[in-house]
Amino acid sequence: MRLILIIALLISARLLAAETVNDVSGLNPIQVQAVLAPTSLEQIVQAVRTHAGPIAIGGGRFSMGGQTASENALQLDMRRYNQVLSFNPGERWIRVQAGITWREVLEYIDPYELSPLIMQSYANFTVGGSLSVNSHGRYIGQGPLVLAVKSIRLVLADGRLVEASPEHESELFYGAIGGYGGIGVIAEATLALTENARLERHSQVMPMADYRRFFDQEVRNNPDMVMHNGILYPNDYSTVRAVSYVRTRAPLTVKERLVPADRDYRLMRTTLGLVSSKSGAMMREAALDPLLYKNKQVQWRNHEASLDVRELQPISGPGYSYVLQEYFVPEAELDNFVVRMKTVLEKHKVKVTNISIRHAKADPGTLLAWARGDTFALVLYYRQGTSAGQRAEVAVWARELIDAALRSHGTYYLPYQILASREQFLLAYPRAQEFFALKKRVDPTNKFRNTLWDAYYR
Ligand SMILES: Cc1cc2nc3c(=O)[nH]c(=O)nc-3n(C[C@H](O)[C@H](O)[C@H](O)COP(=O)(O)OP(=O)(O)OC[C@H]3O[C@@H](n4cnc5c(N)ncnc54)[C@H](O)[C@@H]3O)c2cc1C
């Protein structure tokens, strides 16, 4: 009977033979036993219940350290489990299957003048992958994605289904969100929505030394401020372009409601290539950005939310990869951290393409919270070589940056390359032992694995 069930499951869910999966960075080829792409909750439950070996969970595969796979595991590829389950425009919430992408959510809710309350700066990610890293975007007055989640439905290691929210099964809720697939499969989620406002973009260049005052006076308490980020120019890390998206009634200059799915990005890629070149940082600060931000731009919030990662592609190729790293520090430590970061980056001659400064409100209680108070985030985008030597060099300066963040009572983000020592990880995530204790209780055989937990969970 069990065998028949498994065969039926494999046929209906398209189980493929052993294969190598990778992520967008191209840096993490991992041979898995098989990839299963479920389309129903029953298939997920059956797979978890009947598969004897390890299971890794994959969403859009945009994490950059192999967090969606583990050697010889069964990978659950969630991307075909992507339907809207219920939607209440009046009460502004939506219930979705976790493999749905933000783009698909946006297409569904846009006709109702609604928008996700919190999401990342691109729309390609799955909701399940975003919940599992507890992602964030550029929304002011918001923070980690957990702040926009009403409840989730989890499949635990024994196949049990649990509905978890801040009020009910809260330990599972706060463990699984930001838990990188270590606690269970997030199968469904109910997310808060907000109005799809019309936004006018403003931008202003200032010394880094003035940015915090600017943020306090112009951004933090402005009721019309919807999105904001600072671009810290990597030329000498002393100048910021503050870019704000403010609610307006002005006529639209961008008529499209969403970024067209088939947009041609050739020009954008050429520009990115230029910016990443030797003198690119200077050219960007002095010429390209002043041109880019000169014109008035009024667009829908959903238009800015629907940006496509394709604009950055190719993210990886023979011998190179564009990758991200991210560091979080308490508000008062921003300037100190920037000085320390500059020292490390200059010492190691790191060619940074972009640094984005963002703000996040405190996390309400996830075990692996990266915003343990109101926080500034610094997102580094850079190009690296892929040889063993080049990767080892990156590991050296990344660990120095993690130490710098720790000295500022901050932390670093986990979806990127897994470069931190175990000691650094435990210092950066002080509730990791509570997370591990929860994992041990609900997943005693360590069924749910991936490179992150292979590195740090004992
Ligand atoms: C170009 C680029 C821009 C980015 N911008 C941002 C940004 O603005 N803000 C931000 O916070 N992050 C950003 N990221 C990081 C990205 O948000 C995270 O990697 C996010 O998890 C990607 O979603 P995904 O669907 O690709 O998840 P994946 O990479 O597929 O998975 C991420 C983790 O979630 C787990 N997982 C996936 N689905 C489930 C599920 N259903 N149940 C349980 N566990 C699951 C996986 O096992 C894995 O550990 C960016 C990454 C890139 C490459």
Number of helices: 14
Mean pLDDT: 95
Unreliable stretches (pLDDT < 50, length at least 5) are none
**Gross geometry:** globular
- CATH fold descriptor of the largest domain: Alpha-Beta Plaits
Number of domains: 3
Amino- and carboxy-terminal Cα gap: 35 Å
Bound ligands, named by name, code or SMILES:
flavin-adenine dinucleotide
Main beta sheet strand tally, sense and closure: 9 strands, antiparallel
Secondary-structure-derived class: alpha+beta
Helix content percent band:
25-40%
> What's the CATH C level of the largest domain?
Alpha Beta
The CATH level-2 architecture of the largest domain is identified as 2-Layer Sandwich
SS elements, strand count: 20
Radius of gyration: 22 Å
**What proportion strand?**
25-35%
Give structural notes.
- The chain has helices at residues 2-12, 41-50, 102-109, 127-133, 170-176, 208-220, 266-275, 280-292, 301-305, 334-347, 388-407, 422-428, 432-442, 451-456, and strands at 19-21, 30-32, 34-36, 55-58, 74-77, 84-88, 93-97, 114-116, 149-155, 161-164, 185-195, 198-207, 225-232, 239-247, 298-300, 316-317, 320-330, 352-360, 375-385, 411-412.
- It has 458 residues and is of the alpha+beta class.
- It folds into three domains: 2-79, Uridine Diphospho-n-acetylenolpyruvylglucosamine Reductase, domain 2 (2-Layer Sandwich); 80-195, Uridine Diphospho-n-acetylenolpyruvylglucosamine Reductase, domain 3 (2-Layer Sandwich), CATH 3.30.465.10; 198-426, Alpha-Beta Plaits (2-Layer Sandwich), CATH 3.30.70.2520.
- Helix content is 31%, strand content 26%.
- The protein contains 14 helices and 20 strands.
- The mean pLDDT is 95.
- β16 and β17 (320-330) form a beta hairpin.
- Strands 12, 13, 14, 15, 16, 17, 18, 19 and 20 form a nine-stranded antiparallel β-sheet that branches.
- Bound molecules: flavin-adenine dinucleotide.
